[in-house]
């Protein structure tokens, strides 16, 4: 391929990157990734980089699995495309629907396919409103979500999300979507214990339902663990209380498992980790381990029976795309046959947790949290208080992420939290490498931040 600088110049000139400003691209040039195998990326300079984010939390089985490439090639030759509109179907969509019904908890026995998480959550907005229409309760339209949630990037799914920065760019949220607080104890819990705070945040759901009137509320949507919001792991009291409220109130519960699905928490689904019984579950990412774009809404017997009464005027050209479905099926076969979820639960996650919690002793680290193979830590200027930095949120996180990149470790930052969500197939020795590079990066970033005069807590 062309020299890196040339590739970067063309990239900056013609390629509009998500979530990236032009001047940043022009100044630094994006890292050009050329190959990947297992848990390691190779860039255009030949550097070997440990991918502790599994791409964007999706490459659960790791890179370079030839089986998926072979299945894709075979399917492309046999039937590269057909749709599932107007009374047609095909074998890969049928087989994947059956497999998902088998794997999913409870009676989530039906799937409406999409090409990713945003599309699936757009589907969910329509599904829940349509459900209540057909139930003779057309006033039940409001969907309650949470601040700092991430449910996608389309107008509908970004409206479900609670990212104010996104809402400000394009007139979101759309009507009838409201947001309650997130269970983020570290920065928002004040003097409460985590358990008190978790209960308080859960009860905001009940208060919001009462405020709006139950007759207006269609659904509550939440990620079992907020991912893009910073891997916010709720206090233990949170989910049991939300479960109680959802059981007592006549609303649907949508679990967005785009990140937490397919083994990430050490269970097949985060809903099993927290004993949730969603009426609808959003899946994407780990469904195909990112090898093909596919997502879907898994739907309970109860909801499917109502929706299916009449034509649901909704569908994407690529709903259940045969190549993507075949790839997803092969990915699920590998997850099952290689017992990767057991590997997470019994080996990788406990070892990662042991290492991750050691980082809590670092002067730069305020807290460490982890469930399964998703972990985060709070950077801090002062371990004795749970407070943000004086510098604007993300300044210190960005500096730390740069040090990680420099040490060939992909870690992400959300404001001033550092995140990892590695491929589930990581071995103990991969985790040792992750840990060594993380410590080195934290040491270096701590020094940078100190020297820049930014090691200061907000008032
Ligand atoms: N929901 C969650 C919880 C996500 O993390 C994401 C993607 N990060 C989405 C939905 C959107 O999925 P996609 O990017 O495939 O549209």
From TrEMBL:
The keyword S-adenosyl-L-methionine does not apply. InterPro entries: Aminotrans_3 (IPR005814), Aminotrans_3_PPA_site (IPR049704), PyrdxlP-dep_Trfase (IPR015424), PyrdxlP-dep_Trfase_major (IPR015421), PyrdxlP-dep_Trfase_small (IPR015422). Belongs to the class-III pyridoxal-phosphate-dependent aminotransferase family. PROSITE patterns: AA_TRANSFER_CLASS_3. One of its GO terms (molecular function) is transaminase activity. It comes from the Bacteria. It comes from Maritimibacter harenae. Keywords: Aminotransferase, Pyridoxal phosphate, Transferase. Pfam families: Aminotran_3. This is Aminotransferase class III-fold pyridoxal phosphate-dependent enzyme. Its cofactor is pyridoxal 5'-phosphate.
């Amino acid at each position: 391929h062309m020299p890196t600088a040339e590739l970067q110049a063309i990239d900056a000139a013609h390629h509009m990157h998500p979530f990236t400003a032009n001047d940043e691209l022009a100044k630094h040039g994006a890292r050009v990734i050329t190959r990947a195998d297992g848990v390691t990326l190779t860039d255009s300079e030949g550097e070997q980089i440990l991918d502790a984010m599994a791409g964007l939390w999706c490459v659960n089985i790791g890179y370079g699995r030839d089986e998926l490439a072979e299945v894709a090639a075979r399917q492309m030759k046999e039937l590269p495309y057909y749709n599932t509109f107007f009374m047609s179907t095909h074998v890969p969509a049928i087989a994947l629907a059956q497999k998902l019904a088998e794997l999913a908890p409870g009676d989530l026995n039906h799937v409406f396919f999409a090409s990713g998480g945003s599309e699936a959550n757009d589907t969910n907005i329509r599904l829940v409103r349509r459900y209540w229409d057909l139930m003779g309760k057309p006033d039940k339209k409001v969907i309650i979500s949470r601040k700092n949630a991430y449910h996608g990037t389309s107008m509908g799914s970004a409206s479900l999300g609670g990212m104010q920065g996104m809402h400000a760019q394009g007139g979101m949220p759309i009507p009838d979507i409201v947001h309650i607080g997130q269970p983020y104890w570290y920065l928002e819990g004040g003097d409460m214990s985590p358990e008190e705070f978790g209960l308080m945040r859960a009860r905001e759901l009940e208060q919001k339902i009462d405020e709006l009137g139950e007759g207006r509320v269609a659904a509550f949507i939440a990620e079992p663990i907020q991912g893009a919001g910073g891997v916010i792991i709720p206090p233990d009291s949170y989910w049991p209380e939300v479960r109680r409220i959802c059981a007592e109130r006549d609303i649907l519960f949508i679990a967005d498992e785009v990140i937490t699905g397919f083994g990430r928490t050490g269970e097949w689904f985060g809903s099993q980790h927290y004993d949730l019984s969603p009426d609808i579950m959003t899946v994407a990412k780990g469904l195909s381990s990112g090898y093909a774009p596919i997502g879907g809404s898994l739907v309970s017997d109860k909801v499917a029976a109502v929706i299916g009464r009449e034509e649901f005027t909704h569908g994407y050209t690529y709903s259940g795309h045969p190549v993507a479905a075949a790839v997803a099926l092969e990915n699920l076969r590998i997850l099952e046959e290689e017992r990767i979820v057991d590997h997470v639960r019994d080996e990788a996650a406990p070892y990662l947790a042991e290492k991750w919690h050691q980082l809590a002793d670092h002067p730069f680290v305020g807290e460490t949290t982890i469930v399964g193979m998703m972990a985060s830590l709070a950077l801090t200027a002062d371990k004795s208080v749970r407070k943000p930095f004086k510098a604007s949120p993300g300044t210190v996180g960005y500096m730390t992420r740069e040090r990680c990149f420099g040490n060939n470790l992909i870690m992400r930052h959300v404001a001033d939290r550092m995140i990892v969500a590695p491929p589930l197939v990581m071995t103990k020795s991969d985790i040792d490498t992750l840990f060594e590079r993380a410590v080195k990066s934290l040491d270096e970033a701590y020094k940078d931040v100190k020297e820049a005069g930014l090691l200061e807590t907000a008032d």
